[in-house]
Amino acid sequence: MRYLKNLTVLVVIAFWSCDDFLDTPPESQISLSDFWQTRSDAELGVAAAYDELQNAFESNFWVWGELRGDNYTLNDRPSADTQNQLTNNLQISTGGADWSDLYAAIATANVAIQQIPEIPDFANKNDLLAQSLAIRALCYFYAVRVWGGVPKVTALVDDVSGDINIPRSPLNEIYNEIILPDLAEAEALIQTPTSRNFFSLGSILALKAHVYAWPGAHQNYQMALDAINELEGLGYSLETSTDGWANIFPSESSNEIIFWLAWNFAEDTGNGGHAQFAGFTPDKVPAETLEAKWSAAIPGDFRILESAAFDIEIEDPMAEFPFLRIMSKFFGVFDDRGDQADASANNDFDIPFFRLSGLMLLKAEIQNYLNDGAGALASVNSIRTARGLPNLVGGTDVDTGNQTAMRDLILDERQFELMGEGQRFWDLVRNGVAVEVMSQVIDITSGNLNGLDREIEIVWPVSQNVLDRNPNIEQNEAYR
Q: Taking the complete model, does pTM exceed 0.90, yes or no?
């Protein structure tokens, strides 16, 4: 994989990051002390944590944050998993319900967090420890949003006599004992201001802002706002031309990028999950309702075609399936369906966790909830100005004193700007409107309303695979 080129390290860490480490005692003849001796060892160990992060998010990044929202609809021949994900009719066997890969990444980060401090000092020691802490915080932040309470594992699972069939811990414990302290320590240790494919101060602040903006006892809008304000001073900048914005995605070299998890087709033997959106016959396609909403809200917005090709000419209706709309953001628009399939199957597109425009629109959301509607509108307009779009006028286009109206405006701006970047479902949940929005979405293949009509269905079921291996795991209420 791109992060890890020395495969021998996998032999050393395999037993800490196995899929079933929560229920199977490790087996290895290699001692920790035999490996974690030098700077090179630490770098390889952290690279292994990034590799496990790739495994955990290759498909799940999209499944958890993108597909359950209202950006997509089903093609005429979807897989069972896609149908369940897009219609929010989740099953214990649905892809995305198994947390094994996420815990493998956590386990590998735990090794680095414990072992790096024991290595004699070297130049980037603090950076590597900070990255390991940020990786663990990121994994747990996803885990609690996907499943709610989850098992709390921060130590090495290296005692074969110990009981590692541990139950789930409450949300407040995961936040207060892992996510928040990990982020605080990572922020204090990190020395690198910005880095596109590795955790840096910028991406730690981006994650911190999202964590403190998320609902719960830990929510603190002022801390989230402070993190974004600090992030904005690190040298990131918005693209200010049509071509500049469109080239962010294929070039992966824009100053808007805060943290995108690196992907290399040749080295990672996969495609970062993107191919599912634009293969020869994708089973999910951009929703026509999104096109209609977007065109009505911002007529002529160049991002519509650059994000989702809604109108592709059909030359041979008998050979080409009726749904030819694709997510063009990462692939472009193809005249030839074969070229499209090849491009989607053999791509190097990174997984886009944080981009500056997303954080600036999150800032607008936070400002609105802090009763600064005028500031929120100014943040929205900063994105519109960069994209060459008309600014909105308070009192004319929106009542900045109406928190609900501003919330909906900001949600729309985020949907348009970040379509296809794994944010939409999280946006709906964070703002408390997931059920309100999704329960009104109609599945065009069946004519049925979307299945998300209860708050308890926002979290996922725990997979049968996990339940079978660990009898101390309790299933979420909606799926018992």
A: yes
